[in-house]
Amino acid sequence: MTMCGKETVMLHLELAKELEDTNKVEAAKEYLLAAQALMDSVTKGDQEQVEMMANKLYDKAMLLQQPQQASPKFQSQSNEHAIQVQQQTTITQTKTQHYSKKKGITFADIGGLEELKNEINFKIIEPFRNPDLFTYYGKKAGGGILMYGPPGCGKTLIAKATANEADAQFLHIKASTLKSKYVGETEKNIDELFAKAREEPTIIFFDEFESLGQDRTNSMPHEKNFVAQLLTEIDGIESKDQQLLILAATNEPWSIDPALRREGRFGSTLFIPPPDQESRKSILELHLKNKPTKDINYDYLAEITEGYSGADLKSLCEKAIDSVLQESITTKNRRQITTDDLLRAKVKTKSVLKEWFKKARDQVKMRGLEESFPELFEYKLAKKTIAQVSA
Fold first, then answer.
1. How big is the chain by its Cα radius of gyration, in Å?
2. What residues contact residue 313 under an 8 Å CB cut-off, 6+ apart?
3. Equal CATH topology for 94-271 and 277-347
4. How far apart are CA 78 and CA 80, in angstroms?
5. What is the overall mean pLDDT for the chain?
6. Is 332 helix (H, G, I), strand (E, B) or coil?
7. CA–CA separation, 27 vs 18, rounded Å?
8. φ and ψ at residue 244, rounded to 5 degrees
9. Beta strand 202-207 with 169-174: parallel, antiparallel or unpaired?
10. Residue 95 DSSP SS3
11. Which of 18, 54, 172, 175 has CA atoms 20 to 30 A from the CA of 96?
12. Lowest mean pLDDT across 25-34, 232-241, 286-295
């Protein structure tokens, strides 16, 4: 620990001890700041010892905090002097997007991808709709499924539609927002999240899952605790009769800790491919809906945009609209958007999917995970990429 870091820690500890008898909330805050100062000044040589000290300070802060916690978990704190860590861990207000049942997007709103939707229907939706039937055949409604694929291809959209089809509570979690700079708070956030999810049939959706479930091989000790807590919660699902499913989405499946990818945890994986031709047509129609268009050849545009993600197609449409709008400003004449405008926009729109498939293939091969993620090598866009690289 550096001398400057040690002085900062001692300052917070002195203030905490002075405040313990008169203001426990502020004392708890000072203990947490001392713990954070410890972690900020950690060096490789004293890492374990410093982390142990920081955890003791955290526990001390939690003990001081208890008398002030009259409200139940997930209820917002009204006390203006509530410490910062309480504000950061009010999951239902700041970390979770909750979607009511039977509202919003369904599979009917997603064009194409019929094979994927059928697989999701069998693995996720039907177990929620007919738990007795699945129990009869020795199957349970619950567990974890990892969705992976290139960015911008609708993993979040599919998760929302799945929850609505299953008539389940949907908790959308940005995995990175569960993390806290305070020692032990990330584990507490995970515990509270699962406690809420157990109240009724629920689908938890972890977005950016690689930021929470990363491989522990080269992680810091406190980061390893995140994965350990997550494993504990997931294993607890199997031991209890509860309808709780965990969906996770990632663009980097090779980065997920192997223990999380085992059977009974995230043993099932779903590859979310780039949109097929029917899907591309639906996406283009969606982004040009209610826009001034004339005789758009959606079938042709969908055919020539193979290898484009949903995000790429949205960008293409926006560029075409902007081009026509700028022209109208210059000429003072309004005109409708045509297929030619979209074709010109396509020239300016570069897809990153080929680069992603190449990177994904290289990373998976380097780790020997070809059998875990075979779709990366079977998907036709990936094959084209491999052929181009080899040529």
1. 25
2. 275, 280, 283, 284, 287, 305
3. no
4. 6
5. 77
6. coil
7. 8
8. -140, 120
9. parallel
10. coil
11. 54
12. 232-241
Rounded CA separation 112/109 (Å): 10
* Structure confidence by residue, pLDDT tens digits, 246-287: 888 999 999 888 888 887 778 778 898 888 898 899 899 989
| Residues 107, 117 contacting (CB under 8 angstroms) | yes
> What three-state secondary structure class fits 79?
coil
| DSSP state letter for 42 | -
Q: Which of 321, 322, 305 is nearest to 313 (CA)?
A: 305
Selection from 270, 16, 36, 256 nearest residue 158 by Cα: 270
d(CA 237, CA 245): 9
Question: Which candidate, 179, 207, 224, 200, places its Cα nearest to that of 89?
Answer: 179
Q: In what order do the strands lie in the sheet with 244-250?
A: 96-99, 169-174, 202-207, 244-250, 142-148, 268-271
CA dihedral 74, 213, 311, 305 (to 10 degrees): -150
Please state which of the four CATH numbers 3.10.580.10, 3.40.50.300, 3.40.50.1110, 1.10.8.60 is assigned to the domain occupying 94-271: 3.40.50.300
- For residue 355, the tally of other CB atoms under 10 A from its CB is 12
Residue tagged 């965990």 (tokens)? 246
> 277-347 is classed in which CATH architecture?
Orthogonal Bundle (1.10)
Neighbour-count burial of 62, counting CB atoms closer than 10 A to its CB (0-12 exposed, 13-18 middle, 19+ buried) = middle
- In the chain, where the domains are located: 3-88, 94-271, 277-347, 353-390
